Amino acid sequence: MSWFHGVKLCITRGWDVNMIHMKKGSIIKTPLATAVHSAAMVTLLLERGATDVIHLDGIAEFSPALVHAIGTSNPNEEVIQLLLQHGSLVNSPYYTGGTLLLPAYALTSSEKHELLIKLLYDYGGRLDPIFPRPDGLIDTFVGESVEFLASSLESVKQAVAHGAKIKRPVEKDHFVRTLIKWGPVDYGCVWNYSSGNVFCAKTYRSQTGGLVNYDDYISFLKDQGADINALDCIIGYGNSEEILHLEYCTALEYFDFIRSSNVIPDRWPITSEEEIPLFGYPQEAVKKGDRYFGRVPREIEDMASILKKHGAVSFPLR
């Protein structure tokens, strides 16, 4: 019996086509998300009532099947169009950058790549989306499109030509920005919190072991009117439960903050000394308590030097 007919038989015997597979409270996959490599299977599931609009926490919703379909190495346009026709969401606050346009822009440039971007725009795709929340706050992704695409200057230029904003909003009390949790500075006590801007984005996007066209990237941003000394990065300190102090700073001050803390973001616990190529360059691990954290890599030093060459400065303590 083929997989297709096996699934069809399971459906006739009462299998839930909207079953959600969870892991530690996070949605991993749905039947539709598992089937995105087959237009026939996606069609079958949709005909039998499958949905790709998943509600989360009563606050927002997203579409895991569309995420998987666009995230494959060779996206199937027929499957993507089927999902969009049945209501899959191109924009959601649960997507990185708030929209699935970004992984589409990041694909290798080709005719298929252009068609996918157009298709997502046709179904409501927006760069730098803003989402109102029930509590009166706003999840804003303004300025994050360019940051997401920073590893490819070609993709950045394409997104900017399509209206992507370079600057994030600053000091909007009702706007919510995501902060990266770093540290700990003092083991088990103080954590760093930070949020970079478009000039810092290359730190997280360099994937080939070095600074790919970072100088050209900075030049392009300046040509577009971006202020290299804008006070729109955020740094601060706090414990694991409560942020104690935050302030705005420049991109250069942001890098100085990282260097002074001398650790990388605590995203993946390390249990033994090893090289950690998170920022492109291998780096030593330093022990804090019974955990290991990576030393600040040379890449950040190099980026700070390039920023200074382009006129970046550190301001006196405010």
From TrEMBL:
**Superkingdom to which the source organism belongs:** Eukaryota
Q: Which InterPro entries match?
A: Ankyrin_rpt-contain_sf
Which Gene3D superfamilies does the annotation name? Ankyrin repeat-containing domain
Write the protein's name.
Ankyrin repeat domain-containing protein
- Species of origin: Sphaerobolus stellatus (strain SS14)
